[in-house]
Amino acid sequence: MKAHMTKGTIDFLQKLAEKNPDQNIKLMQSNEGGLAYYEHNPKKLFQSGRTFEILEETGVILQNGYVVMNNIPVAEESQPIFEDRFKKRKQAVENMPGFQAFRLLRPEKGEIYVVLTQWATKKHFEDWKASDVFSEAHKNEAVKSSSYLFKNAYVADYMMYEEEEDQA
After folding, report:
1. pLDDT attached to residue 87
2. Domains in the chain, ordered, with CATH?
3. Confidence (pLDDT) at 141
4. Which residue among 17, 51, 59, 61 has the highest number of C-beta atoms inside a 10 angstrom radius?
């Protein structure tokens, strides 16, 4: 299965979503602009953007919530090791209050994987990061990461875009 995403202004992305109502395009926004995301359809709607294979998925990406995307560059020769690590991961995150969805996305081109999680609120995500379960799941991360990362990873966070109701 595939996942597709592209960045742009919310106005532009809304028009794209309106032109393709059958694609279930999810719109997200951050301080840096908007992001459109859809999955499970091999049809590429975006002229620019990124396409991924969905390697692992849990939950349903909902129309509301807080999304965190860990963008992790992985050297080509280390990709099997990285993917294996996630296949063996404990499912602890799924049991956390406020958890909505998880995706492990392998890039179709390039080396930047995306680990996407969606939460009911930013507070739920912060509670996860402060939990003992998070500490346990990430305790050996520095050692494991250095074996396959070749650039700095980065995090992008978004709120799901909710169109404001017209006020009469």
Report:
1. 74
2. 2-158 (3.30.70.100)
3. 58
4. 61
- Average pLDDT for runs of 10 along the chain of length 168: 94 93 93 93 80 94 96 91 78 88 94 95 94 75 53 90 61
Residue 106: strand pairing partners: 53
**Cβ-proximal residues to 7 (8 Å cutoff; 6+ apart), any chain:** 33, 34, 35, 36, 49
Distance CA 98, CA 83 (A): 25
Residue 158 pLDDT: 97
Q: Quick one: tokens of 56? A: 């692992």
> Which of 154, 156, 150 has its CA nearest to residue 81?
150
Q: How far is CA 82 from the centre of its chain?
A: 16
Give Cβ neighbours of residue 113 (< 8 Å, ≥ 6 apart).
Answer: 71, 72, 73, 74, 82, 104, 105, 106, 107
At 135, list the tokens: 């500490």
Say how many C-beta atoms besides its own lie within 10 A of residue 24's C-beta.
14
Give start and end residues of each alpha helix (H) in the chain: 10-19, 79-87, 122-129, 132-137, 141-146
